[in-house]
């Protein structure tokens, strides 16, 4: 009898534990830190990271500044002024330089990473926007490249700058303003929403070789890539969706409902997930079941207007830029990616 | 009244001084301009040509310039007298290097993975395509091989090393298997003085220059280490002074070798990302075209001393060029940049 009671008790407790686990299944992202950006108003655009120095750089577009955050201290340690519309940003570790693309100055400004002193301005970059880092070709060029997307209509392109000094090295012309783009091997995929396609450029030939139509979706801005599975992800705003492309065939494989007004999308290789931030104040987390199957597993609130974000795999952290809202100051929300359950 | 006159006089004197200063500055600018070792003289537009531009060659007698339009998958043929495009040769996959042989009136085009194509020099029709090896890049001509083979040989760098072909029909003659898994050759140069038969080959991934003997079917005779420099792609030769020049990308530099000892003599800080280098024997200069949008001009004071004397502006991305001593011209291939279409920039070497 006693043994039977024990068994029942054990069974009941196991059921309870299982139910509790089910109820408290941790969200894939856990908020671990909030860093205030005092006095920063207006829209916030993209971010960049100095992994070694643990500094986060925020392109505070509406505030016309770049905010430099010390992540260990959890506060702003410097503000770069004199900008008009900072959009894209990148920090190059090998040369300790900060590249800032300004859409109104039509310039990519290059600052010293230690003193924030302006070292160079690459001009004639109308509506300079996204910046990406291209290490794939360092063996040929002797230095990694910093690619800057710019322009409108047929006067658009990606300009490659030398990561050591910011001098222009080459250009790939495009047929419309480039939104997000990703370097993968010898190719660069570029969202060109005004033309309704993804431009596929060959870095060896330095030109667009292919254009993949994006049918049924408009305003597709952010992009991420899974090189292992040869998948390309883009975030559409109209309608809000995650679109998955096969990078071999250029065909759209599937689409999943997403959050609204997105501007950044990341593929987390270690956890096989995608994080998408929406200006509607939500984060969408998608699970990659296999190369062809994706599910929206979590939709969690961030902050209104927080459409830009940055995932840093080395630190397993996801940073979301939340603009000032309803009297509350602008801030950076820091999340830790949780293990898969 | 007297006061006003004085004011007018002072203003007039100031204006005169300013004008004189401006004239002096203008004169200085003109003098500086005059002193530029390369004078921009012509633009040859290449509308519709897309992507990266690779190496060039010239038909001196016919005044034609051939350009490997790698990104565009064509070879562009230009009339230098008229300053315009004559023809575009299609059907190519990554054309990289080319050479026009006047003795046989044939154009040899190395097309990356495709192989070596041989065209009739007049009709520009494809005569032959040789394609068992990949990575075909630079093309050179060795007239001295005629003593052994009845005609000069065409040398092509590729994934196995160098390959030699008969310049009359493109028939393969022999192979120089100096490439290893570590990497394939980049630019190479042949000695041309009678009796000198060495070929110097840049092997950047192996960190050395391979020296082979063209009189012994390309037998490897030496390996010169290139210490302190990486990604050294272009090469030029000053045979009279026994000097070999290579252009390093990391760090950007002109590196000078003594071809007698195989040692580095000196190096001079260069320009970013170069792909072509020429020695102007008449003016004792070296021209280095680089992606940062300049041609760097180095003066050779003597075989051991070099100085970067000018950075002549071109267009960013213009890494390749071709110097023709007979015309005293340097042709620079300028790819599309900031909305500007592809073009050839023609410079005249100044005394």
Descriptive notes:
The complex is a heterodimer of chains A (341) and B (351). Chain A has helices at residues 2-23, 138-141; strands at residues 29-37, 47-50, 55-60, 65-70, 75-80, 86-92, 97-102, 107-112, 118-122, 131-134, 145-152, 155-162, 168-174, 181-184, 187-192, 197-202, 207-213, 218-226, 231-238, 240-246, 252-257, 262-268, 273-278, 282-290, 293-301, 308-312, 317-322, 330-337. Chain A has 341 residues and is mainly β. In chain A, the strands form 7 sheets. A 4-stranded antiparallel β-sheet of chain A has the order 1-28-27-26, with no helix packed on it. A 4-stranded antiparallel β-sheet of chain A has the order 2-3-4-5, with no helix packed on it. A 4-stranded antiparallel β-sheet of chain A has the order 6-7-8-9, with no helix packed on it. Chain A has a domain at 83-213: Methylamine Dehydrogenase, Chain H (7 Propeller), CATH 2.130.10. Chain B is mostly beta strands and 351 residues long. In chain B, 11% of the residues lie in helices and 50% in strands. Chain B contains 2 helices and 28 strands. A 4-stranded antiparallel β-sheet of chain B has the order 1-28-27-26, with no helix packed on it. In chain B, strands 2-3-4-5 form a 4-stranded antiparallel β-sheet, with no helix packed on it. In chain B, strands 6-7-8-9 form a 4-stranded antiparallel β-sheet, with no helix packed on it. The longest helix of chain B has 34 residues, at 2-35. Chain B is globular, with a radius of gyration of 23 Å. Residues 7-20 and 22-33 of chain B have low confidence and may be disordered. Chains A and B meet through helix 2, strand 12 and strand 13 of A and strand 19 of B.
């Amino acid at each position: 009898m006693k043994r039977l009671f024990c068994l029942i008790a054990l069974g009941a407790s196991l059921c309870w534990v299982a139910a509790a686990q089910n109820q408290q299944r941790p969200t894939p992202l856990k908020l671990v830190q909030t860093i205030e950006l005092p006095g920063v108003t207006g829209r916030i655009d993209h971010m960049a990271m100095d992994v070694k120095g643990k500094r986060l750089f925020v392109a505070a577009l509406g505030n016309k500044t770049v905010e430099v955050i010390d992540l260990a201290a959890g506060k702003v340690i410097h503000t770069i002024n004199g900008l008009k519309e900072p959009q894209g940003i990148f920090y190059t570790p090998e040369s300790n330089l900060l590249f800032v693309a300004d859409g109104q100055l039509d310039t990519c400004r290059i600052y010293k990473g230690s003193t924030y002193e302006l070292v160079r301005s690459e001009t004639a970059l109308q509506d300079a926007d996204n910046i990406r880092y291209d290490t794939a070709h360092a063996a040929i060029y002797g230095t990694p490249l910093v690619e800057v997307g710019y322009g409108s209509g047929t006067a658009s392109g990606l300009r490659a700058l030398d990561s050591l000094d910011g001098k222009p090295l080459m250009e790939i012309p495009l047929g419309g303003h480039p939104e997000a783009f990703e370097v993968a091997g010898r190719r660069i995929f570029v969202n060109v929403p005004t033309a309704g396609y993804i431009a596929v450029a060959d870095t060896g030939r330095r030109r667009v070789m292919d254009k993949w139509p994006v049918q049924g979706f408009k305003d597709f801005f952010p992009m991420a890539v899974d090189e292992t599975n040869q998948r390309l992800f883009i975030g559409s705003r109209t309608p809000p969706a995650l679109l998955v492309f096969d990078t071999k065939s250029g065909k759209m494989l599937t689409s999943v409902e997403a959050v609204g007004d997105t501007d950044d999308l990341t593929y987390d290789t270690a956890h096989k997930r995608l994080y998408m931030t929406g200006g509607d104040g939500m984060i969408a987390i998608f699970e990659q079941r296999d190369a062809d199957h994706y599910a929206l597993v979590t939709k969690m609130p961030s902050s209104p207007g927080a459409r830009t974000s940055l995932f840093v795999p080395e630190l397993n952290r996801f940073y979301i830029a939340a603009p000032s809202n309803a009297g509350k100051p602008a801030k950076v929300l820091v999340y830790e990616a949780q293990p898969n359950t | 009244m007297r006061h006003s006159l004085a004011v007018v006089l002072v203003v007039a004197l100031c204006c005169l001084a300013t004008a004189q200063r401006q004239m002096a500055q203008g004169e200085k600018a003109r003098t500086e301009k005059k002193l530029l070792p390369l004078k921009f003289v012509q633009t040859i537009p290449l509308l519709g040509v897309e992507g990266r531009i690779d190496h060039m060659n010239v038909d001196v007698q016919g005044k034609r310039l051939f350009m490997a339009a790698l990104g565009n998958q064509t070879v562009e043929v230009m009339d230098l007298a008229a300053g315009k495009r004559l023809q575009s040769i299609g059907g190519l996959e990554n054309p990289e290097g080319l050479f026009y042989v006047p003795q046989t009136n044939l154009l040899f085009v190395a097309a990356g993975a495709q192989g070596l194509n041989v065209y009739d020099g007049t009709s520009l029709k494809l005569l032959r395509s040789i394609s068992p090896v990949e990575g075909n890049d630079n093309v050179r001509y060795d007239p001295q091989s005629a003593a052994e083979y009845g005609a000069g040989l065409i040398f092509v760098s590729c994934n196995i090393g160098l390959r030699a072909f008969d310049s009359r029909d493109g028939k393969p003659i022999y192979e120089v298997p100096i490439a290893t898994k570590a990497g394939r050759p980049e630019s190479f140069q042949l000695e041309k003085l009678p009796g000198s038969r060495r070929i110097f080959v840049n092997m950047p991934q192996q960190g050395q220059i391979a020296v082979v003997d063209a009189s012994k079917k390309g037998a490897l005779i030496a390996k010169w280490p290139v210490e302190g420099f990486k990604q050294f792609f272009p090469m030029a030769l000053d045979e009279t002074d026994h000097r070999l020049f290579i252009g390093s990308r990391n760090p950007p530099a002109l590196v000078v070798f003594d071809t007698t000892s195989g040692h580095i003599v000196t190096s001079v800080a260069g320009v970013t990302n170069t792909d072509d280098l020429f020695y102007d024997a008449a003016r004792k200069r070296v021209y280095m075209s680089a992606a940062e949008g300049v041609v760097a001009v180095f003066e050779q004071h003597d075989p051991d001393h070099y100085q970067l004397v000018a950075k002549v502006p071109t267009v960013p991305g213009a890494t390749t060029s071709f110097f023709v001593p007979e015309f005293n011209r340097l042709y620079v291939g300028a790819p599309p940049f900031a909305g500007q279409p592809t073009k050839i920039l023609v410079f005249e070497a100044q005394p």
